[in-house]
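Hi X.,

You mentioned you wanted examples for the new student's onboarding notes, showing what a folding record looks like when two proteins sit in one file. Here is a clean example. The first protein comes first, with its sequence line followed by its structure tokens.
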Amino acid sequence: MGSLLIDNVRLVRPGCSVEPGSIRVSDGRIATIGKPGPEPGAGCTRIDGGGRLLTPGLIDLHTHGIEHWQYEASAGDLAAGVARLGRRGTTCILPTVIPRRKGRFLENLAELADAAASVRTVSIPGLHIEGPFVALTGAACEPVSGDVKLVDDIVAACRGRVVVMSLSPEVPNILPVIERLVEHGVRPFITHTQANVEQAQAAIDAGARHATHFYDVFPAPPETEPGVRTAGAVETILADPRATVDFICDGRHVHPMAVKAALAAKGWERVALISDSNVGAGLPAGIYPTPWGYPVKVSPDDAARIHDERHPSHGLLAGSSLTMERGIANLLGWLTLPPEQIWAMGTLVPARVAGLVRKGRLEVGADADLVLWEENLRPVRTWVAGECVYEAPG
């Protein structure tokens, strides 16, 4: 394989700087980073970036689907859906699966894990299992008490390809589950919770150090004294310096002020962007069928909403229609942080949270998962491991 020189670009080094430069790619990794204008050399293809931004690819830790595809529906849906991510500037995801303990659920997990390992259009380090150990059902999660054997069965069924399992601190017998996940090298995320301070602190101490779709399905515990706001999981997570958080930054699931509050408490180094996307994400405004028995109404300026007047939840949120590049655009509009820190929230920070040491950064030796952007934050080209997986028409 020949090398690739991407020249005349503004390099976004997440958390560090935005500066003119060039990158040489070889064998799927960043080989050199230099000033603009080096000679490409024999066997090297040169691309003139035209002064555009070059960033690491976006990393989505929590995503259920895109456009017309829900990842957990089948191996074919997973492959078809992730093939659309390059045009969104997303180069790495954890397909998020809600385990429903009936029928062939372990076999289905195994098929998805195998399919994820064979994908080349996006990097998939493994799966994100949302549940089953949750206290509040939210998005169709099935509440189950802590069961270490079930953890072992799920990890085994996925051939060890589980990166994250999301759970609730107040679920009975959850601490042994958290400890077993850590033993397996699986990162426990906190979610769907109304835990009190003591429950949340115990979960963090046991190894659950990240909260996903923070603020969404994180209600405060019931008041025990009228007029006295009860502290719970949200306050405990914000106060603990070991804990990180992620947000659905669409302006509907979470008010921008909540993101600013987390940044004030933790700094950009501990706040990540996710999409939590599902069917409808990335589509033009319209009404679209779903696998759930009702259509959703999607608008770029709103989340997906149930669109069935016979449905008791007509008009309510039906998952996220956010895509990662739109989330970055929102953050750039909401926040006064330097742009390299905002880009880090969609690249470097999620890579650190998931333990992906060669992703989310522009450094020699890092994976060449790269995106060249137009000013309107539409990708011109997207590379995964140095291979172009998307090129804009024209």
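Then the second protein repeats the pattern, sequence line and then tokens:
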Amino acid sequence: MGLGGGIDTGPVEAGVIGTAKFSYDLWGDTVNTASRMESHGIPGCIQVTERTRDLLRERYLVRERGRIQIKGKGTMTTYFLSGRTRHHDHMPDLTAPIGLEPKFRVGRCL
């Protein structure tokens, strides 16, 4: 069984919740949609929404999965993240702390 993930991009609400035990949390439609990307995904694959694909397409390879039925969202076109573009393959991720650049190997997705 492989590890999978889901990503959406958009606004979120954030804050501390709880009275006895405090917890910082995120919520909103973007969080819910990312969760749906994960739960409707395929093990070993990172499934992303069209909004996320639009932001990643310059640096990452994304393949269209197609239109699938997403609970609470209807039919959505989703995509699989399949790696970095050749141009960015050896470039560090400048948004991550030094030494913590994301390293991932995506399995065969469809």
